[in-house]
Amino acid sequence: MRALRLMAWKSEAELTEAPAPTPGPGQVVIKIGGAGACHSDLHLMHDFTAGSLPWSPPFTLGHENAGWVHELGVGVTGLEVGQPVAVMGAWGCGVCQRCRLGIDAYCEDPDRAPIPSGGGGLGLDGGMADLMLVDNARHLIALPEGLTPAQAAPLTDAGLTPYHAVRRSLPKLMPGSTAVIIGVGGLGHVGVQILKAVTAAQVIAVDTRQEALDLATGCGADQALLADDSTVAAIRDATSGHGADVVIDMVGSDETLALAGQSVRTLGDLTLVGIAGGTLPVSFFSLPYEASVQSTYWGSRPELIEVLDLAARGLIAPKVTTFGLDQAMEAYRRMRAGELLGRAVIVP
Ligand code: NAD
Ligand code: ZN
């Protein structure tokens, strides 16, 4: 089969022939119907080096996957060949408290996990291939009626990650509140849709690209602001001078973290999702009083079920551009150049 493999750090992935996987006990092979191209894959190809992460190449990219059950390993019940499924991407040990809660991303027994803090496309072979081996059947969620794998794939990360970030701040997103999303790319545009679907907050989107702001407006943002010297003042203006109750930074550079810190309100949440590697100095007077700063990594299995439900009912709908497997590197090139809107999904 064909597979887009990252062979070494600081290199571009290569489309190669790879052996088709066979499922061991409890495992499932799926036929890929869609694999989302995430900006994290650009970080994998260009930014990380040996020791940055607890695993290393070679592996097949693609951690945002959906498809059809292709072959069941011994002992797997409750799934049928041909059934459409989404893949929960983080794969933990399955027995620690976090995994039992469906939060494999924070598995506390990484030595017993198939890979520490990773999954298919993150240390193990992912979905940018014709077929993908899923380590355990519990990572598969049946697609609700009406969702195709190509539509569902981005929901497993570009949908799940902002959903988790929004969900943990829900008590601060009451009517009269304001949420800011910085970076309206794959994750950010779905983040805007999620905020509009599940909260009554005023939503302000910020990006450096006008076309991304137009997408944000199309996704329901109440205001869309270019990231420049006037952004903080505009956010203050839109919030009676108070600042935003929740700021979610989908970029994570020094610049965007500074903007987030200057835009957040007292008692607000500043949530860091983007992995651009920036830092935010924190001291007693550097942030509004009782502003909470947190990172988030992916989301939980119950949350993915909720995200799939939102999409199945048409309350969120990621903007998807599809590419063949042989065009995957072109999708990444466009993402890196800022020429992509919404999410690129590779359909083999
Ligand atoms: P993307 O490339 O699709 O979108 C990034 C957006 O940010 C683009 O629209 C871009 O124009 C905008 N942007 C860039 N610099 C900006 C700035 N200074 N101010 C405002 N906007 C700016 O990327 P994506 O796939 O949505 O991923 C976003 C980030 O989130 C990446 O760093 C990715 O690695 C990370 N990520 C984190 C998690 C997690 O669990 N924490 C999960 C997935 C992705
Ligand atoms: Zn990702």
UniProtKB/TrEMBL annotation:
Catalytic activity: a secondary alcohol + NAD(+) = a ketone + NADH + H(+); a primary alcohol + NAD(+) = an aldehyde + NADH + H(+)
Top-level taxon in the UniProt lineage: Bacteria
Signal peptide interval: none
CDD domains named among the record's database cross-references: arabinose_DH_like
Cofactor (UniProt): Zn(2+)
Stretches assigned to the Enoyl reductase (ER) domain: 2-346
Annotated Gene3D superfamilies: Medium-chain alcohol dehydrogenases, catalytic domain (3.90.180.10), NAD(P)-binding Rossmann-like Domain (3.40.50.720)
Keyword Oxidoreductase: yes
Record key words, sorted: Metal-binding, Oxidoreductase, Zinc
Class of enzymatic activity (EC top level): oxidoreductase
PROSITE patterns in alphabetical order: ADH_ZINC
E.C. no: 1.1.1.1
SMART domains: PKS_ER
InterPro entries documented for this protein: ADH-like_C, ADH-like_N, ADH_Zn_CS, ER, GroES-like_sf, NAD(P)-bd_dom_sf
Family: Belongs to the zinc-containing alcohol dehydrogenase family.
UniProt-recorded name of the protein: alcohol dehydrogenase
Organism for this UniProt entry: Pilimelia columellifera subsp. columellifera
Taxonomic placement: Bacteria, Bacillati, Actinomycetota, Actinomycetes, Micromonosporales
